[in-house]
Amino acid sequence: MHKYKFSLPRLDITGMWVFSLGVWFHIVARLVYSKPWMAFFLAELIAAILVLFGAYQVLDAWIARVSREEREALEARQQAMMEGQQEGGHVSH
What is the pTM of this model? Predict the structure, then answer.
């Protein structure tokens, strides 16, 4: 007997938006007539979650770009220092 491991696929930001909007429309369609205040609260909650998730994605990409640029600048400085040391170490007679 084989055991299957169930895992959800990792959604990108567009997939998360489409999925969340689909869930939102499905749930709100049921709540609008019976409990309008709950539909409004749910809409605000989902909007806040999407904004936070989107902000996290944007900040994560920005931090990765900045750290990559800093790493490249550091490597360039180290390379320049090593070249300077190698040139200074060669003494011509």
Answer: 0.42
